[in-house]
Amino acid sequence: MPYYRVVGEVPRKRHVQFRRPDGGLYAEELMGEEGFSSDSSLLYHRHLPTAIIKAEAVEPSEAAVLTPNLPLSPRHFRTQDLPDGGDLVTGRALLAGNADVRLSYAATEAPSGLYRNSMGDECVYIAGGRVTFESTYGALEAGEGDYVVVPTGTIHRWVPRGRVTALVVEAAGHIRPPKRYLSKYGQFLEHAPYCERDLRAPSEPLTAEGEEVPVLVRTRGGLTRLVYRNHPFDVVGWDGCLYPYAFNINDFEPIVKGIHAPPPVHQTFEGPNFVICSFCPRPLDFHPEAVPIPYNHHNVDSDELMFYAGGDYSARRGSGIDVGSVSLHPAGFTHGPQPGAVEAVLEAVRQGHTRTSELAVMIDTFRPLDLGPAALSVEDPAYAWTWSR
């Protein structure tokens, strides 16, 4: 994270005695990245965060198996046809993934249990509904259009307020704002499409009582269920630059050009060998001879997965793409507007059309994406041939 926060009670200096009202010591916990060489936060617990009383392995679901995208082709998956089930942790329907990132869809009304992903950061895009994110850092309210970024190792749970749908990005590393948006000291620069004021973080501690509390933990070795002697939500204060936060896609300020700009202008976050981009409503390209629609392109180093969150994608008209759709355009395939889309947009401009209404989340990966069983179960088999109609 690019800047410092303090929440609740903390002592004046790091790593000094900090006593409870009864005279005992609070237990200090350092959450730090990259071997004490990057961002960190200090959390102060009423109980020992190390006190576990049981550990058991959890067998993974067979539904987590990935298969190669063969024969190589563009794909269209209809997440709106996936059944609801589980919660925002156990109900993730795997769409695609590789060694760097896993992409899933979830639709549920059920609260999750406590969960800790110790393999990497998560970025959960709330496509619909409202949810409370609870963690050792405090609580966040999130709703439609919010990205919720969860640092590695954060114990948390999700409490929906009715039905919630979400696109889940699980990284094998850290998810951060792009370096080009930040000064060398971490402040958002003036050309960045969002800034510190757009980010929401927990503002007060969240405490809960309980004993023998189970926490599902994901590690590189698999899944484990640890049982903690005391409830992990016992933090009275924390400070630092590492914490969960929310950012709403509608606060992204699109970068506009006279002629069509490539996807890097939409970049919102970066992860290990992937980027996350936000396509938001914006003015159309305004050069008098502009073609205000994506050109045919072949990103030779990336697979492109697009989640269509709202609005109208004129470039995809006639493809079967709709809100809730996911398209996958792999490296090795040239893709672009559907037949007739360029002429249709130029005619709309002549009729006075000046803005796009598209809303989408795109993940570009620099290693090929394999396909998850959930995606294959709702695939549109005709999509690959829609450019030939």
From TrEMBL:
Homogentisate 1,2-dioxygenase N-terminal domain residues: 23-248
Cofactor: Fe cation
Domain Homogentisate 1,2-dioxygenase C-terminal: 273-387
InterPro entries linked: HgmA_C, HgmA_N, Homogentis_dOase, RmlC-like_jellyroll, RmlC_Cupin_sf
Keywords in alphabetical order: Dioxygenase, Iron, Metal-binding, Oxidoreductase
Family: Belongs to the homogentisate dioxygenase family.
Protein name according to UniProt: Homogentisate 1,2-dioxygenase
